[in-house]
Amino acid sequence: MTIIAHISDTHFDGSERALSRVRRAMTYLRGCNVDVILVTGDLADHGDVKEYNQVKAELVADVPVLLLPGNHDDRAAYREILLDSDGSAPINQLKRAGGLLFALCDSTIPGEDDGLLAPETLDWLKGVLADSEEPVFVGLHHHPIRLNNPLLDGIRLRNPDDLAAVLRGSSTARAVFCGHAHAAAAGTFAGLPLIAAPGIFSTTRLPWTTTDQLAWANTFDRDDVPGVVFHVVENGELTSHFRSIAE
Length: 247
Known about the structure:
By secondary structure, the chain is of the alpha/beta class. Helices cover about 25% and strands about 25% of the residues.
């Protein structure tokens, strides 16, 4: 059995508030018996070097911590601090952790909030899935399905059909994990489980839970507690458990 702790959207911005919420989450997770921690994007808020130095210092544990970029991240600074490399190409990584294989895809469009899996990323993922003889768990930042929140759905993945075609053509893809929504959600995509992690930095309000007309200025609840999804993989089966992280 392998247990994945899935969080997202830490948005390090240099503030004590962001730092304290991440520390709260990571302290909790370090005390849990998990095999790997997955953080699905928007690690930094402005994508600058100082923020990535905080990412490097704080998103650490005795188990592997897997990271991928989101729309607030900057590829150059991300590569410089977190990967000790340079370049502006999509940051796609194949990682083994907890006895599982993770294909971490870069769905970002530099300078834009919505997402796109570039042709080279789709080709890379197709090759990973074809070459693997074991289950592969796919991670990206942007959600490829509608989450029934007009604001968020306006900045989701632009080319979900291209991703679906790659996944449907594979016998090894097992699930898709994403972030971006700042709200826990579960669905299906290309016949696979699709799980969006809650946000660490804030939570998005759902349209049917309020009489307010939601806009970007008022949709984020900064007082809601951060959350985590625990994915349990056992004998090829996936079960996901959603928990809040109390102080």
